[in-house]
Sequence to fold (370 residues):
Amino acid sequence: MLTPPLQPGAQRADGSSVRIGALVPLTRPGWVEAGRHLLAGLELAVREVGDAGGIDGKPLELLVRDTAADPQRAAEAVDELAGLGVAAIAGEYHSVVARAAAARADALGVPFLCSSAVLDGLTEQPTDCVARLAPAQSHGWRIYADFLLDAGHTRIAVATEPGAYWASGTRILREHFAPRGGTVIELDARALAPTALCDELVAHDVTAVLLLVGFPEPAVPIVTSVRGDRRLAGITIGAPAGQPEFAEWAALLGDDGAAVPFLRYLPETLTPLGARVEKALSESLSAAPSFVAFEGYDTVTVLAELLRTHGTGGVRIAESWSRVAAEGTRGQIRFSRTPGISVWQWAWPPVQVVDRDPAAPDRLRVLRTG
Fold:
């Protein structure tokens, strides 16, 4: 549940808790289902930290703010949370929103552990204030590109919308395909209606089309049109950003949503902690938890370890990313400086290419690990 906001600058008089701010998309146009999973993971870990004695005997308190996929709203939330004296800020799913939050946190000197956003350029300059659990986009999308190339797809199209995240994804694919003799054709999903987009796919003679677009619009009508076009019966639809991970995809697309490969950040086998957390998250969500829920849980696990070991001061946390070693749901988490990445990075979480089984769309199949 959302914690009622205090007045900016206000403090709890008894200092009875250690507070962490949480940025989560909980309303449209944010991806609400992803936000719900992220929040479930954050909240479960906070409860478990409290059950284990808290931080130096004080409970951990989560101050949740809805970003609604709005960068300005996220930046304002960072300002508010900093005024409330949080020890750190956690969360966010949307890359462009996380980038705005990271910039503001860096400017204010507030530690920010980004849970799910993958855009390589999370900050303009190297910073000690920001760390990230999710793999950088260039890492995961190269694995996805290798999956396509190994499957024989050397001429693909991307149906894309304007935005830094989609533009970055297109560039990564082009740079990876070109040295291997591959071609990436860009189609503007805003300028082309789904039927016109199908005409372009036929004209360009591609074997795969990747959805670098928002969900449910325009992703759902594009998938429906491609699946219904006999000329494209043999084409592969892909969604590297992970849209098919969530139940809403299956609910809206049914059988049409199967066999669409996407990226998710889970190992073949969860750690013992991960198996226990999976069961608890399944109960709280009344559904199988996505990788985003595990990212939320691991975020608080890391911050709790930092708070116990290095204290609740923001400067000390920001100086300690390189020294933390936390056992997460998907393996041991350590941060390092990674070439081309401006923030402290877990290099790397496990990466999988997965799709929904056409024989049972509720079941996921692992197609590749990296």
Notes: Residues 32-51 form the longest helix (20 residues). The chain has a mean pLDDT of 95. The CA atoms of residues 95 and 322 lie 23 Å apart.
